[in-house]
Automatic annotation (TrEMBL):
PROSITE patterns, per database record: PORPHOBILINOGEN_DEAM
Subunit relationships: Monomer.
Domain Porphobilinogen deaminase C-terminal: start-end pairs: 249-307
Catalytic activity, reaction form: 4 porphobilinogen + H2O = hydroxymethylbilane + 4 NH4(+)
Species for this entry: Luteolibacter algae
Protein's gene: hemC
Entry protein name: Porphobilinogen deaminase
Further comment: The porphobilinogen subunits are added to the dipyrromethane group.
């Protein structure tokens, strides 16, 4: 194929989830471009080094704007040419990128829900008063406060297997929240629930309750993999475009545009998800006021993801 190269270097973080996502990316590329050699470069990010403090504090301490903690070093590697394509969890990518880089493609999305992992069955409603819930996400914390104001929130850091072990092996938490996508990709849960009282693979004492997105709103881009390249790198753009998943791209374009409109430099906790039926996109969001209090919930529909995002943004302002 014209414009392709002999070797492409894929950059990824070293967490188990990141490596699975890199393997998925390499598999799709290898099928489409059997002549090209895909090499992998593992890069440690600030978010991986600083597991001692909360994510918000990592960002502050390191002078990195918000979500940059998992992508900064990958972007540096893109910039100096030591990698060509950076593989990210899309929800870890800022909605506005440094102009040297572009989001070139998104891969088919995994399940988008958040999951409550708990030591007793029955999900969120069955947690006793005051139960301790671990999460490092402000979005998840605010939703828990809204749905169950009596619960106690505790910070929880570490990659997915570490967080599961912290719940399973200690008495520090009664429950934790994780993304369904990470649990499915790492084999902790099947793609679809097998039965009513699900447990985590390898941890028969840990129950998993998939929280419906209309009640517990996921992060923009949750479950999707984003491929970032240098702006102007036409060869890498050809590779990325060849494995882009169109439906996912349309949905995450709407979700990320909504987040971008809302952000404007602040850090409003927001959950958002979308559905695509034919060419019509439906976008649903729940926005928590920064100063606390009751969230606003809204929806918008239409054929154009950017217009739908703008309409929803204006209706919730
Ligand atoms: N910020 C960490 C992170 N980034 C992406 C995922 C899971 C995969 C995804 O949502 O795409 C996770 C872990 C989690 O939220 O449980």
């Amino acid at each position: 194929m014209s414009g392709t190269r002999k070797e492409i270097i894929i950059g990824t973080r070293g967490s188990e989830l990141a490596l699975v996502q890199a393997t998925t990316t390499e598999g799709l590329l290898g099928e489409k471009f059997p002549e090209t050699d895909f090499r992998r470069e593992i890069i440690k990010t600030t978010g991986d080094r600083r597991t001692d403090v909360s994510l918000a504090n990592v960002a502050k301490a390191e002078g990195i704007f918000d979500k940059g903690v998992f992508i900064k070093e990958l972007e540096e590697a893109l910039a100096d040419g030591s990698i060509d394509i950076a593989v990210h969890s899309l929800k870890d990518m800022p909605t506005v990128l440094d102009p040297r880089f572009i989001l070139a493609a998104t891969l088919e999305r995994a399940p988008v829900k958040d999951v409550l992992l708990s030591k007793a069955s029955g999900g969120l409603a069955a947690l006793p008063q005051g139960a301790r819930v671990g999460t490092s996400s402000v979005r998840r914390a605010r939703q828990i406060e809204f749905l169950r104001p009596d619960l106690t929130l505790l910070d929880l850091r570490g990659n997915v297997p570490t967080r599961i072990r912290k719940l399973a092996d200690n008495d520090e938490y009664d429950a934790i929240l994780l993304a369904e996508a990470g649990l499915v990709r790492l084999g902790f849960l099947p793609e679809r629930p097998a039965g009513d009282a699900e447990t985590v693979t390898g941890h028969p004492q840990v129950f998993a309750t998939r929280l419906d997105e209309s009640e517990f709103f996921p992060a923009a881009g949750q479950g999707a993999i984003g491929l970032e390249i240098r702006d102007g790198d036409d060869a890498s753009a050809v590779y990325a475009a060849a494995i882009n998943h169109r439906e996912t791209w349309i949905k995450v374009t709407a979700e990320r545009e909504f987040l971008r409109l809302l952000d404007g430099g602040c850090h409003t906790p927001v959950g958002v998800y979308s559905c695509l039926e034919g060419e019509e996109i439906s976008l649903y969001a729940r926005v928590f006021p920064e100063e606390g209090g009751t969230p606003k919930t809204g929806e918008a529909k239409g054929p154009d993801p950017l217009a739908v995002a703008l309409e929803l943004f204006q209706s919730l302002k």
